[in-house]
Amino acid sequence: AQSVAQPEDQVNVAEGNPLTVKCTYSVSGNPYLFWYVQYPNRGLQFLLKYITGDNLVKGSYGFEAEFNKSQTSFHLKKPSALVSDSALYFCAVRPYSSASKIIFGSGTRLSIRP
Amino acid sequence: NAGVTQTPKFQVLKTGQSMTLQCAQDMNHEYMSWYRQDPGMGLRLIHYSVGAGITDQGEVPNGYNVSRSTTEDFPLRLLSAAPSQTSVYFCASSLTGDRGVQPQHFGDGTRLSIL
Fold this sequence. Notes:
A: globular; B: mainly beta
């Protein structure tokens, strides 16, 4: 079965430190990979995507993500965390074989302490 | 340009009642979808549409109906509300070019409680 896993329900980081939010996937073929962020009482907002090419993709608000095909991972990273980065983060995959259906992970709550 | 608009923002229903959640987008997106968000489960796809007149089932379609008579609107109907349908519902839209590489735009959600 096709799936997306976000193994950490919560990640706690001190402001100014680097952060990583983990995502692994299991789909057939070459997937399209996305990260979204959700602030309280709002819908999801697009951060970045990987389609093909360079394994390191850059997105909004200083976030980047590294695609690793051998490990089937797409971890979200930021070199220096801000308190305003505190939110719920979702990894999503759109299988090439089923472009109309998107699979979301369960979400990781990122908490940045001052 | 309002993006994706969902109404109502909050709703409380009694078991057995029916209602329609509205979703409208003004970006001329072909693809529209409905998700429900439950704690610890992420977003689960209910129904989706790749264009006017075309709809298909997602992961959790039971108890919900959709229609797509125009490009702009994609309402979600609860036929006979059950407490298990208490959730936050999100509508999303995107372009469909390049076999799905376009990111989705989300509304702010409808918070639905079934008593």
